[in-house]
Design a protein that fits this description.
Layout lengths: L1 E8 L3 H13 L5 E5 L15 E2 L10 H20 L3 E2 L3 E5 L5 H13 L5 E4 H7 L7 E5 L3 E3 L1 H14 L3 E4 L3 E6 L4 E5 L2 E10 L5 H7 L6 E13 L10 E4 L11 E4 L5 E4 L3 E2 L13 H8 L2 H9 L1 H12 L1 H9 L10 E14 L9 E4 L3 E6 L8 H14 L2
Parallel strand pairs: 1-2, 1-12, 2-9, 5-14, 12-20
Antiparallel strand pairs: 3-8, 4-8, 5-7, 6-7, 10-11, 11-12, 13-16, 13-17, 13-18, 15-16, 19-20
Length: 398
């Protein structure tokens, strides 16, 4: 039977940052990270927009607002310390309709309240900065950047191992229980005992909490985000990230135009229900995952609350023409021939029983364990301060 002082379940960027932080705080401890896949960072960490978020959107006082602001600085510092590339290209949030201007002003006020650098610029100025973008006004977020989070995560794993930690891939946690002494896990590689555990299970966060005897009053609903790579356009199509003003009736930020670290651009993501928790293709189906979604009362209440946006997102998923219309609002020169399929991602979204999409980071604790139950965007940006928060709570509990 394997033993450890501290065990982390999940090899995404939050799990790896947590392992690294715990190893730093307790260098003599036996710290073990378990990942069910053959390598780390294969799911949400390696399938996102790659944006270093500044924290413009998040409610003042929320964990998202605090962790994102601190995490953006921590991410850059980590990259600088270890020679990893990133780019501070900034972001324009563009309004294309007069009805969006009050929402844009509200975003300005929110960013200011969060202590985020933000500037309102005119349509003329936006056009001068980005000649290929249509806007009647914009917000300039200079603190937004881009990075490859999978590269960051793999570097974290490398440092963690070099400092004495252990990463065990291909190991799936099946069940577990707590005793007065600690944690006992049943895994595909055999039993493991540990003094304390942190569950960073992403798309399986609710299942891991239930497997450990908790009764979480939410379920993870998977939303597939579909992207396209842009073809046939010049390398200076845009110099900054381009985001629409988010629609308050929609729970996500909208289809945005993103520069990529390896060159080129993508547009996306939309947000459609995935029929499998790791269902990156439209045809991917897990009867068990789908039954878990459809059997959760909160799913149907969420659907009623968001019926209009849900239909719109589904239609745009089925029709590239409708998807393109979302992009052409601010990039009218793009055509269907300019869009090529790009790898999709699946977002783990916690949905409460009443149908509310849980908007902030969510943690549950038991005697010897802490569960990261909801860590949607900007979790990759915020991973390092999230790890510090987890270590404070886990180790501070004695």
């Amino acid at each position: 039977m394997k033993t450890a002082d501290l065990v982390i379940i999940g090899g995404g960027i939050v799990g790896l940052a947590t392992a690294l932080e715990l190893q730093r705080r307790q260098p003599k401890a036996r710290v073990l990270l378990l990942e069910k896949e053959p390598a780390v960072a294969l799911h949400q960490t390696g399938r996102n927009s790659g944006v270093i978020h500044a924290g413009v959107y998040y409610a003042p006082g929320s964990l998202k607002a605090r962790f994102c602001r601190d995490g953006a600085a921590a991410t850059r510092a980590f990259c600088d310390a270890h020679g990893l590339p990133y780019e501070d290209c900034g972001k324009l949030i563009v309004a294309t309709d007069p009805a969006e201007l009050p929402r844009m002003e509200a975003l300005f006020q929110r960013a200011t309240a969060n202590g985020i650098p933000i500037e309102s610029i005119s349509a003329t100025e936006a056009r001068r900065w980005e000649p290929n973008i249509a806007a009647i006004g914009a917000l300039w977020s200079p603190a937004t950047g881009i990075v490859d989070y999978a590269v960051v995560a793999r570097k974290m794993a490398e440092i963690f191992i070099a400092q004495g930690g252990t990463v065990e891939t291909g190991t799936c946690v099946i069940a577990g229980r707590e005793s007065a002494q600690g944690i006992r896990l049943t895994t595909s590689s055999g039993p493991i005992t540990a003094g304390k555990a942190v569950f960073c299970a992403g798309l399986h966060a609710d299942r891991m909490a239930k497997a450990m005897g908790l009764a979480p009053d939410f379920r993870i609903i998977p939303f597939r985000g579909e992207y396209f790579r842009i073809l046939n356009q010049p390398a200076d199509l845009v110099r900054r990230l381009i985001y629409p003003v988010p629609d308050p009736e929609r729970p996500f930020l909208g289809v945005h135009l993103t520069r990529k670290m390896g060159g080129g651009f993508t547009v996306g993501p939309n947000a459609v229900l995935a029929m499998k928790r790791e269902g990156y293709a439209r045809s991917d189906l897990s009867p068990g995952d789908l039954a878990a979604t459809l059997g959760w009362p909160g799913f149907w209440r969420m659907l009623v609350r968001n019926a209009g946006p849900a239909v719109g997102e589904l239609a745009a998923s089925v029709s590239t023409r409708l998807y393109l219309k979302k992009v052409q609002r601010y990039a009218p020169q793009l055509t269907r021939a300019d869009l090529a399929p790009y790898r999709a991602g699946v977002r783990a979204q916690a949905v409460a029983r009443d149908g509310r999409l849980i908007d902030d980071f969510l943690f549950l604790e038991s005697r010897h364990a802490l569960h990261v139950c909801n860590a949607p965007s900007p979790a990759a940006t915020a991973a390092i301060p999230i790890a510090s928060h987890i270590a404070d709570r886990l180790l501070g509990a004695g």
